[in-house]
What we know:
A: alpha+beta; B: Rossmann fold; 8% strand
Amino acid sequence: MKLVKMVTIMGIKIAKNKVNEFLERVKQEYVLYAPVENGVTKFEKIGDPADICILPNRTDISLKPIFFPPEQEFFRWSKDTEGYHIEDLLENEEKKVIFGVRGCDIRSLEILDTYMSGEFADPYYTQRRKNTVLIGLTCSYPRESCFCTAFGGMVPNHYDLWFTDIGSYYYVDVGSEKGKKLIFGDIFENATKEDEMKKNRKIKKVEDEIERRTRIDLCEIKRCSQEIKKKADDDIWRELGEICVSCGRCNFICPTCHCFDVRDITNLEGSEGERIRVWDSCHLYEYAKTSAENFRKERHARVRYRIYDKFVFPVMRYGVYACTGCGRCTDVCHANINLRDVLRRLIS
Amino acid sequence: MPVDIAFVEGTPTTRDEVIKLLRIRKDCKVLVALGACADTGGVPGLVNTISKRDAIKVYQGNPPEISLNPKPLSYYVNVDYILHGCPFSRKELLELITDIVIGKEFREKEYSVCVECTLRENGCLLEQGYLCMGPITRGGCKAMCPSNGAACIGCRGPFEDANFKGHIRSLQELGFTKEQIIEAYSVFSYEKLKEVISWLKEE
């Protein structure tokens, strides 16, 4: 069910060979980010729209690093006879359009927003998050690890524009005022009823494919999280603890994981330095180390904590899962731990 | 002559060198083991995996005096800090000296090379079929080798929390034989991984 009121009643579409012209026009006002292939597929700033790689499904690396980079400088400081001087490195917001975003990525931004721009707002994240226009794209077919349908489907509730491939055109859904401003009359055309039907068929086809593969339904949030909570002493955790190598890749690749460590780096005299933030991972031995003790020394406890921090704790606190079903963690796991299988075992 | 910080590179292989090491220990406040050989016994430690007669062949009839099997420095003396790796990281060296000078605690990296490799958004070499030692090797090198397309060979030695069985399992699933894994495990850290290697041999 869509929560967003459709801004336009008539459907619109854009010819595929006009997409580059459209993006070129967008670039005049915004910084454009889109998927590129460079060893791995990820979102990068685009100079020439011809570099854009239109993929059949999600990128290897999520949108997270754009807003919350792996290593970020907060401020630099120096000390002289007058005292300390601080140079804050909070950037000016940039107006950006991100093209080719998938449903799972948009959902993950919504989740990150609750953590990073909610009760305890992080200025560095919030600043980067401001003035972002998201142009979504329906996947052509899912990856082996995808299971976004378990969280309600491929098309998210909020987007600015949503493109769906319907042959030689993209059908365009408009989801916000920001998106509507990008509908240039000379590039977009009115769509027919038939186009809309094509779009719906296409989305349904891909969603059916995902569902057929995953056979997992997590839509009853309360019940599922209760079910997982009950399994705190299940054998599954020992089993996973034995094969997990604690590399933290699932955390880093996860579009909603947001733990970080703050470090101060100084020069030899201690007269100058900087404060940086780097990503941290709850799979690492030192993550739960305090001055008194390390309360998640055992590997299985760390594996369990990650699953709980996706499917139990956020539900208790915000009423949402912190998972979008993108399946990236499954793809990168050295131990071949499949999140879908784990969940299926937990809620069966 | 007493010094504040002594850096010892390499590891003793003769009695005289051991005596020299003991003297250094006595004369310094802080002893730092510098590099892989001092840390784990390093590549010279490989000699422990084969018989001495075979090992000496490498010198082609002109063998130097190797009276002792190479061991980590910590086998002989108390080591205050270790700078891992072959070569050790310049950045870490600066970090250590800074921390000692300004009185901050130097933090050992208790995580694997995979952590830094992932932070650099590299593709995974294990997935591409390389025998990568990243998952059990201590981070801190900023994943220099994997970032340049070469699999990690474990020069920094294993970190404390490493899951060897898990790593071996995933290597075997990728199709590597026991012998290949034993070889990779022995290159830099034979002295530290003896038990794992003998477990693997028996299994």
